[in-house]
Amino acid sequence: MQHFPIFVALAGRRVVLSGGGEAALAKLRLLMKTEAHLTVFAPAPAPEIEGWDAEGRLRLVRRGMEPGDATCAALFYAADEDAAEDARTAAIARADGAMINIVDNLEDSQFITPAIVDRDPVTVAIGTEGAAPVLARAIKAELEARLPSRLGMLARVGKGFRKMAEALPFGRKRRDFWADYYFDAGPRAVDGVEDGDARDSAARALDDLLARHLSEEQAPGHVSFVGAGPGDPELLTLKARKLLDAADVVIHDRLISPEILELARREALMISAGKEGFGPSVSQSDINDLIVRHVSEGAQVVRLKSGDPTVFGRLDEEVAAVTAEGLSYSVVPGITAASAAVATIGQSLTKRERNASVRLLTGHDMKGFADHDWKALAKTGEVAAIYMGKKASRFIQGRLMMHGADPATPVTVVENASRADQRVIGTSLSALPADLAEADLSGPALVLYGLAPRAAEETVTLMSQQEAL
Ligand code: SAH
């Protein structure tokens, strides 16, 4: 983040602008929404500026800027639309101690003005650090359409009602009440009502709404076991998104990417129940207790697990802990690492005439390296997605070769599948441990036994065709 967004209190402060054309007008229209004391320096001002001066909304000085003109100014805008003049005025203002903005010159500006959605006192500022003004405008248009047009008025009325709303218990109940007011009952109450009566109408809606919410029973706690997918936030389900949006408590695995955690409701209590194959971890029974405690207290809990919660996720133990206490739960599937990894290499998990079944294996279990039906897996064409297989690769290789697997069987390891730092290592059963050691993977990795990246496979086919010729 190159620019840190803040809201500056400008009431009673001095703001100086140099310029009298289109750029100056655009900035002044925004600045006049504040209670700043505006001074404009312009030898040839647009008629609008003269008008605003006459109305006393700003002070117009009909000459170019000179040293000392920006003394005590909080902000300065260079808006002459002339690089040399802008540089001159900006240097003066800088020497006078003001923070400067040069219109359309990101590099030499100390601050920039965002695109603004104005529902005073609710203000949304959108910035792209100059990277994509078109995008900022598109987001602004979308928000303008989405936010009730009288949101500002509703917020002012709502502010006076905050004490009353404390009759509702803190947390979800109170939050639901306000969401209902701002996005449903409030806009409905003022829809089509004239400005003069709208405030009374909104205040009445608040009274009714509070009575209704006070008489409702608090919904019981609930836990959703939610799959967060392999890491790319765009691979979350809509359901996962919604639940994260509404959660009181999020208990998440260590593997969940920060971008996904960002999506949780700001006020949600975030608990990292870090579990790591071989590293420090929170014990399973502590995690179970944590879930049970929060659900019993009436919270909407999201138990966020990487990939799909039903794949090597110890879901059953957590569900058993919850049902033993008579608490309610639901499971929301996610995209498992195997799906993400094969998507990355352009392959299918199953393929006609190659493999009619696929195995999801774990490299190690509670007792150490996990044993499997190696003999069945060693047959030609078999495919397995091996989770937690990094450390077990030599063991897996040994078992498979012992049962007659072809040492040339393709193996692909996908690290950080679907994430920005994903890596693909195409290897073979015989070279797997050595290639893995050399790759020195630090992220979660999925071993795809029996599959090569599609591009590599095509090269091989091509080569054998050439040999045939
Ligand atoms: N429930 C998860 C798996 C949890 S076990 C799922 O459905 O994906 C943890 C293992 O999953 C890791 O050791 C790794 O083998 C695999 N894994 C999880 N995320 C991954 C990713 N983004 N890329 C590759 N492998 C991943």
From TrEMBL:
Residues annotated as domain Tetrapyrrole methylase: 223-432
GO molecular function: NAD binding; precorrin-2 dehydrogenase activity; sirohydrochlorin ferrochelatase activity; uroporphyrin-III C-methyltransferase activity
Reaction(s) the record says it catalyses: precorrin-2 + NAD(+) = sirohydrochlorin + NADH + 2 H(+)
Pathway per the UniProt entry: Porphyrin-containing compound metabolism; siroheme biosynthesis; sirohydrochlorin from precorrin-2: step 1/1; Porphyrin-containing compound metabolism; siroheme biosynthesis; precorrin-2 from uroporphyrinogen III: step 1/1
UniProt entry tagged with the keyword S-adenosyl-L-methionine: yes
CDD domains: SUMT (cd11642)
Keyword Mitochondrion: no
Residues at the active site: 253, 275
Top-level taxon of the source organism: Bacteria
Regions annotated as coiled coil: none
Keywords, in A-Z order: Cobalamin biosynthesis, Lyase, Methyltransferase, Multifunctional enzyme, NAD, Oxidoreductase, Porphyrin biosynthesis, S-adenosyl-L-methionine, Transferase
SUPFAM superfamilies: NAD(P)-binding Rossmann-fold domains (SSF51735), Siroheme synthase middle domains-like (SSF75615), Tetrapyrrole methylase (SSF53790)
A Pfam family the protein falls into: TP_methylase
UniProt record, GO biological process: cobalamin biosynthetic process; methylation; siroheme biosynthetic process
Family: Belongs to the precorrin methyltransferase family.
PANTHER family: S-ADENOSYL-L-METHIONINE-DEPENDENT UROPORPHYRINOGEN III METHYLTRANSFERASE, CHLOROPLASTIC, SIROHEME SYNTHASE-RELATED
UniProt-recorded name of the protein: Uroporphyrin-III C-methyltransferase
Annotated source species: Roseivivax halodurans JCM 10272
Higher taxonomy: Bacteria, Pseudomonadati, Pseudomonadota, Alphaproteobacteria, Rhodobacterales
